[in-house]
Amino acid sequence: MDAKKAAREAEATRKTFGQCADELTKSKRSEWRNATHARQWRQTLNDYCGPIWNIPVDAIDTPAVLSILKPVWATKPETASRLRGRIESTLDYAKAHKRTGENPATWKGNLALILPRRQKLSRVHLAALPYQNVTAFVATLRETESIRALALEFLILTAARLGEVLGAQWAEIDSAAKTWTVPANRMKAGLEHRVPLSARAMGIVGKMAEVRTGDFVFPGQRRGRPLSQGALRKLCPAGATMHGFRSSFRDWCGEETSFPRELAEQCLAHKTGNAIEQAYSRGDALEKRRALMDAWAAYVELRAGGNVVPMRAAQ
Fold first, then answer.
1. Would you say 57 and 99 are in contact if contact means Cβ atoms under 8 Å apart?
2. N or C: which end of the chain has fewer CB within 10 A?
3. d(Cα 57, Cα 241) in Å, to the nearest integer?
4. What is the enclosing helix (H) or strand (E) of 288?
5. The pLDDT of residue 308
């Protein structure tokens, strides 16, 4: 081996975990569905891998990886699983660039022998506002009609995910058809999702059109940027989460209506049925879902203290 090649390999093994994470993020950026996904991938490593960030990759062993994973393994299983995978990918990248030894973040035959399987952990559900309280909460949102309050009510009415709402652009709104089409690259399942918009949701769109400043339906303070997640989270009621409003909607569907379970799941953009059923299902039941979302909007319209009238599907 010539001296230059030996020097290059020695330099590669001296790279820190953080350097490898940065290089991997840059090299994989074109593969990721959107900038948000890339940012989340990198943010996970930033948030949890501080103790090993400046350690040479060759010096990172199983105890070092466990010191990162154990604090969140039982309390945040989804986050912990993603974190482990991203550490493993970073160290695989390092190995492909001359890191020596086995990958200490590998699950099979390694961490699987030390950490409990995720299925055996107690499930941690995102806290949700009881659906019976959503009406009163929406009433308080309407007291201000700020952009963030309108965005949060739109999220509740559409049962959409936070990132989908904040990323909503005017090109996705069809006012004539009263639909919002979220492109595949912004959906968790990677499939385009048409959302039927109720009269109130269309009213919110109309209010935002009056103050339109760019491509985003709910713009932030920085020009060309959408509203921030933090702005909406500040409005979230104590003990609840933004994602929890999807659970509020789903609980209402099950408890207060006779709409089919599959229809409620479609409204949440969840896959239903087995692989064969999914392969043969070409429609998205838009109008049937519109009836359900209109019923949800009618329920949300009720004021606190009013009679809660269950909304039933037409028989």
1. yes
2. C
3. 37
4. helix 286-301
5. 38
Question: What residues form DSSP beta bridges with 193?
Answer: 182
The two tokens of residue 228 are 């921030």
Cβ-contact 195, 172 below 8 angstroms: no
Q: Which residues contact 65 (CB under 8 A, 6 or more apart)?
A: 52, 84, 87, 104, 105, 111
Distance CA 218, CA 226 (A): 6
Interacting residues of 289 by C-beta distance below 8 A, sequence separation 6+:
196, 263, 266, 267
Give the start-end residues of each E strand in the chain: 173-174, 179-182, 193-196
Question: Residue 159 pLDDT > 50, yes or no?
Answer: yes
**Whether the Cβ atoms of residue 111 and residue 65 lie closer than 8 Å to each other:** yes
Which of 46-50, 103-107, 112-116 is predicted with the least confidence, judged by mean pLDDT?
112-116
Query: What is the rounded distance in angstroms from the CA atom of residue 167 to the CA atom of residue 217?
Result: 8
Q: Which domains does the chain have, with CATH numbers?
A: 13-120 (1.10.150.130), 131-301 (1.10.443.10)
Q: Which amino acid is at 67?
A: S
- Residue 218 DSSP one-character state: S
The pTM for the full model equals: 0.60
> CB-based contacts of 250: which residues, under 8 Å, 6+ apart?
159, 264, 268
Q: Coil, strand, or helix at residue 260? A: coil
C-beta of residue 259 within 8 angstroms of C-beta of residue 293: no
Report the DSSP beta bridge partners of residue 222: none
Least trusted range by pLDDT, from 32-41, 51-60, 174-183:
32-41
Compute CA distances 55 → 60, 133, 312, whole Å.
7, 49, 60
Tell me 34's DSSP state.
S
* Residues 15-46 as b or e (16 or more Cβ within 10 Å = b): bbbbbbbeebbeeeeeeeeeeebbeebbebbe
